[in-house]
Design a protein that fits this description.
This protein has 72 residues and is mostly helical. It has one domain. The chain has helices at residues 5-27, 31-39, 42-47, 59-70.
């Protein structure tokens, strides 16, 4: 799917917001810890690449990828 850079950025930001909330709720992280965890993850590098298509998936689906990385 072709989206503009602005659309990609907006979709990515919505997913990041959801994932940070889930990290706080499900893992008991503070907001700062959740931000650090998200932005320092290998998963975030993949989310930043529009070619992966992750920005177009549900936050629940992409959270499973982040969980998998964190559980290793």
């Amino acid at each position: 799917m072709n989206v503009s850079q602005a659309e990609f950025q907006n979709m990515k930001e919505e997913i990041v917001k959801d994932l940070i909330s889930r990290l706080m709720e499900e893992r008991g992280l503070t907001m700062q810890e959740a931000f650090d965890t998200m932005y320092n993850s290998r998963f975030f590098e993949k989310l930043n690449n529009p070619k992966t298509g992750l920005y177009f998936q549900s936050s629940g689906y992409v959270y499973s990828y982040l969980q998998e990385e964190l559980d290793q």
